[in-house]
Specification:
heterodimer; A: 280 residues; alpha+beta; Immunoglobulin-like; 2 domains; 5-stranded mixed β-sheet; 40% helix; 21% strand; B: 643 residues; mainly alpha; Cytochrome C Oxidase, Chain A
Amino acid sequence: MTDVELVSAPHEDAQYAWWRRKDVKAIFLIWLLLTVIGLSLCWVPAHLMGESASEQMDETKQTMTLFTAIAAPVGAFIWAVMIYSLAKWRYTGEGPPPDDAPEFRTNTPSVLVWTLGSAILTMVVFVWGLLKIAAIPAASGFGLQVVDAPPAMEIAVTGNQWVWNFTYPEFNEIQSDVLYLPVDTPTTFDVTSNDVIHSFWIVQMGVKVDANPGAITHTEVTPHKVGTYEIRCAELCGILHAAMQTQVKVVPKTEFDAWVKAKLAVVPLGPAEPKSVGGA
Amino acid sequence: MSVLTHDHIAGQTPNSSNAGGMLLRRMNVVTAIIFGLIFCVGIHYIATAVFVMPEIPEGQDPPSGLVWMLENRVTLATMAGWVLGFMVGIGAFNGPVRWILGKDLTDEDLLFQAGKDQGISRYFRYTTDHKVVGIQYLIITMTLLGVGGTFAMLIRTNLMTPTSTFLGPTTYNTFVGMHGIIMIIATIIMVTGPFGNFVLPIMIGARDMAFPRLNALSFWLIASVVPVLLSTPFLGGMPTGWVAYNPLASQAPPGMDAFVITIIVFAISSAIAGANITTTAVKMRTKGMTWTRTPIFVYGVVASVGLAIPVFPAFMASQVLSGLDRAAGTTWYDPAGGGSGWLYANLFWLMGHPEVYVILIPALAALLELTPVFTRRPLFSFKTAVVAIAGIVGLSVLVWAHHMYVSGWAPDLGGPFMLTTEMISIPTGLLFLVFIGTMWRGRIWTRLPMMAVYAMLWNFVIGGITGVYLSDIPADEAMHGSMFVTAHFHYTLMGVALTGALGAVVYWFPKMTGRMIDEKIGFWGFWMIQIGFQVTFMGMFMVGLGGQPRRVFNYSDMYTTGNFVSTMGAYTIGLGALVFLYTIISSWRHGEVAPSNPWGAKTLEWQVPTPVPLENFDVLPIITEDAYGYGRPASEPKEGSSV
């Protein structure tokens, strides 16, 4: 009659304080185990995000890791109760189980602790988010603008179905469909669209802002690593949305200057047609 | 008045007495289709004749914008014609017309409309009995889930390899949009439709819904518009996904018009259903059923349909304006004419985020309802559950712009929207507490409905946590528009809501069909769906974190493994769904005959006989306590014992 034992067990030790009860101790141990597993795996999401080419991407990865670490004990608790309840409180008989489970209907301390706990976690997550927004000025235009930010290079980004076009107003409006950026240089993007809504996304820099027709949106990034990274469109923009991607080449300052010079040599004065400089 | 009419009719010869009644008796889904086709073809001809191209000077091509606009006018009018004709043909206007003519429906007519003594044919008529409407909703939900699931299989097949040409870009995009909107409609109605209609009135001790004819109307409106929606791929498709963002939608072929009509009609249907169900729950609870004795499922359904009432009109308005831009040359969403895509996005998400709770809450409430039954514990902290549901409903209308964090619209509102969004995790967390508090030291009877609770809790943890990442702007800036988002909302809408609906269908199957579901086969179907689901969306989380955008028909080689894993998982879901469907159909046809209360549950629907008689109760029950008095010797009086 294992059934009887299982049911009577909680009642037997009901005389003890709640944290000394068998159920509670067992669930605590499962919770601890799952939490440790969760914490030891909390680097996984950030790892899956791949290479980082900007401080902003580093910050985002940090956020992902922190949130995973915060979430681990919460998820572990639910899963611990699930596992334990299946193992210990299960009824395997035929018809409906007998009505001999404890009939308590609520437990005010646990409701209060639970509410308070989730409110605190929510505030942690929220404040962290606010701080991050403030720390990365002009991150997609969010939050506080830092007045004494170093002068940034401006690039005009235009989405068209289904290509990106980059214009460098500071260098005689030279145009390119591959983005060239000098490393460690703060860069501001003024993003717009000629047709429908696109979303300008430099994957490895964690930068994204929509390209809206009839409006200009801003984002800003300082690439801190030389290399070639992906630019994709993140807003469904018609049948060839999937093909609307290009690359960003982050190069040393000297190499960037050489590229600009070569471009200026090809392009006569005045704004050029996008076609004439395609395939740089 | 009905007595008067009765006498009046009784005094006449049988043939002439019931002329209107005869018409009423002859209308069914066949006449609806015939009338629908007549109206559709007729209005198409009229529209083609009216909307003609103006004279074009010799040698010039007609302006393509005008050609397109006229095409949209004809398409919209034709589709509206189909819906109107269908509703005429099904008999939706019989009652009002008879009333206007001063020949209101007789008692006999009303009983006929309620489906008295009609057998199977009542399911194909404008039947007002809430149990018939519930079954009709169940069938249409399963059909829509099947169609939407088929689209999902085709999408995943296309995504099995990075450069697949299986569907091609146009078809792929159309299928993505179709999968989206079909599943959204199916999941919105999947709990409140079948169970909100069949179970809820019995659960509160009512003989029917407050407005039985509106009940039939809400169902048949959806039925009428399903063919319109399914016509999309044949009318050039829709390139926009289910969000139908403008200005992209104003470039789209006439397939987009099908979307516009579908949403308008669906919004009307859900407004009617919402008014009906809320009125029923508020006004028709039986004697003694105070709010604290009202089952939690009733709260969940009312919260869902009640939330739909204020938010769906925004969706409808967004599509009315979209239709005007397409057919009448307005520029609501066209920046060149003073419009804005942000207007559309706001209208859309004003509905779009509350809508996920419209889907989620009733599914959770169904599981909350059955957890006490299978654990033999009172629902833990009933009032906490009620407050949590109310909190979710309240906050859900304040969070819409978290879908627009990176849109560039009002960056300064990022903080406030981040706060409201993250605050939703507090009431949602309370629902977790209610679940595990109810399971605490219970006698856990691991039948299939209870397994749905376990599967839901597992999925909800993952769906909830990934939602917290997305709610925080720094992380969202990287994740927005990626497969990560797709995986997240499938964990909530499918992993939580659909799992809840599967639990609900197994739980109420004995009452609705009179037979037990075959849990031996159902077990395999259910767990294949769940395991395939984990595989599919874990793969999708991976590629999403790695930077694969949503809604792409081709992708970079680096995502090959994750996508292949996803596709294999999706096939497992598909197979599991077929097994589950087989279980439902075979059990329905020749399953073991169910006793009236196989689970030993205490809510009222289990106290009436199976099959449930027309009008449910001989004598309306009087309620003396709530339905969660488990954990006590069986001899004590229970709710329903006074029936």
